[in-house]
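Hey,
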Amino acid sequence: MSSDYTGNIRNFCIIAHIDHGKSTLADRLLQATNTVDDRDMVEQVLDSMDLERERGITIKAQAVRMTYAAADGQDYQLNLIDTPGHVDFSYEVSRSLAACEGALLVVDATQGIQAQTLANVYLAMEHDLEIIPVVNKIDLDIAEPERVSLEVQQAFGFNADEVHMVSAKSGAGIDDLLQAIVDDVPNPKGEPDAPLRALIFDSKYDPYKGVVAYVRILDGEVSSRGKVRVMTADNESEILEVGYFQPGPTRASTLKRGEVGYVATGLKSVGDAPVGDTLTMASRPASAPLTGYEALKPMVFAGLYPADGEEYLALREALEKLQLNDAALTFTPESSLALGTGFRCGFLGLLHMDIVQERLEREYDVNLLATSPSVAYNILLTDGSEIEIESPAKLPQPQRIEEYREPWLDLSIITPAAYIGPIMELVQTRRGVFNKMEYLQYGETIGGGDGGDARVLLEYEVPLAEVLMDFYDQLKAKTSGYASMDYTVSGYRSGDLVKLDILVAGEPVDALSVMIHRSDAARQGRALVDKLRELIPRQMFEVPIQAAIGNKIIARENIRALRKNVLAKCYGGDVTRKRKLLARQAEGKKRMKRVGTVEIPQEAFLSILKVER
């Protein structure tokens, strides 16, 4: 490749808070560069998964190549990587940034800067990217583009002429934005004649082509012939195909320095080409791999079990294939007395867990039972050693435990000032520790009135377990949907925690055990047994449901027995006959209570999520 042509490549991504219009902006860029014909155009072209379309969110980062004829008469190759906005998928954003030189920072003209906007900008700055600010949705009646532009300028230090006003829906301002990408985003660096070094920023499994690695070529080039080596994993394989996305896979003879595309490696084993690793040619290998990604650490854990025990192997295979496409998913085998054999899976958050469950059920046709989610706890034992447990069922005996430690978050919330009171109350009930409050005094509207329209940044430290369940829903409910949040894990701290066990008919159900703060145990135990009493079907014998801490019962409810009318056919006659039938029924119920088992429906395991806090 000539150096002139390399200077015509621009690699960029789109970063923004959730629902600020990233995928719609990507659609307009594809249309403006004639990458997708108008007849083939659908909304959110790059959100190809059914789940993404149904929920209106981006889950997987997608790469696409566009060709743009710039004002200087030259054709430029623009490689766009569309990224998710939800906090649970921020790992996808960080991986995409490493493959780019520039980023479009999209801010909604009706909402302004939100929590994820700040987080993504800091992430882009860490990767030393050229940031192009874009104010989107300027065509809406309630849009305030001038105020939001001022907000962006004051928050991140841009000049007024650097902020681009666009409408991703109507296409206004798109041509100017494309020219800005060509003018402002640096061309890729690297050595064209050096041995191949390609960063794997994503991958997927194809049953015919094996592991398909999505790569950014930093040095050298890769052709469709020869053997490729995965450097850190130290695996070699014959290359089956190379190409790029336009937006569908398009074969090419080579991928050269600065380009973004895919390499079909033919590797069959999961994990043979991990995300963050470096590809090089086996015949002329590079001396050192590229700096990979920081290993992802799952923060939320839940048990996934096949509804039919015979589907265990199918579930394992599905998890292995999904893990290749989703680097944040981890799983280890586990067994439960209540549910049989399954897997303890690690996720980045509740939305991530929900998405994984739906993908397993839809894409791999596996019927699942899921236990209630919990976080990973660090336990200091009396002998001075430390262990990490992902499930309350794995907790050692209380006498062996010196200290419980739980993960804490640095939580940032951006909200209109009118909702400060309800938010403070919400966070304090979740054991939150207040750090600071800062008025984001951007725009002219802040100076007038009672200050209720000003926006405020609140920073707290909160235990992850308290944010896990319904915190985000409560935050949206208490602020009429206006507040936004972002968080990072800060580390482990000791806490007065206890294990709350649920006993059904005297038997502990390990899948329903939860770790909880001692101050909240009694109320939570009462709420759980109340909920379970409604969800567990009535049996032919009385079933007690109890919440216990160790040997101490703190809450109890009884499910009344179903009673067959054994006297239905006795219209008269001696009363002793009736007594005999009733006595026989009572005896049978006693025997059933001793040997009977209680089926616990899936709703019971999810009920822990639904308990009001």
